[in-house]
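Researcher: Re-running this chain for the archive, since the previous output was lost when a drive failed. Same request as before.
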Amino acid sequence: MEAEPDRGKAKRELERLLFSDAFLTAYAVIDGARRLDLLTRLDEFAPPHQCLYIGELEPEVAVVAPWLVELRENEDFFDWLFDEGWGDSLCIWLTSEAPILDVRAHFRRLTIVEMPDGQMVYFRFYDPRVLRAFLPTCDEAQKAQMFGEAVERFFVEDETGAAPLVFQP
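Model: Regenerated structure tokens:
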């Protein structure tokens, strides 16, 4: 029988990766569709956050939209997000030198992509299953587009939830 992953160890490692550089800000992009109480939690914990969709959203769209959230060490929102979402493909984590509005603008450009047949589709890059499969296949131009000027490193849970995977340009 396979041993359960050590979530405490994974959390400590993720905290180290996200918060050890004072010049970088930690963020998460959270998939509202995977956690329908996300807006309630954002109101409750009140971290700085921005929806990746623009305009006035209908409530049923806002609740399932992707949300960019600034994370701070030793705050309850980070603990809630890790405890409720790690291993459940709830979000991706990242570090950046950029302020939240610049990071949002970068990710806004990634939410819709053109397929080879010309069809425009939503790109769910904020799903860790998608990001960990996609990034290793990227050529240099695609990597440059994913990281842009905004992202220093991406972090996602590995397939077992035992440890964070690190992606950098």
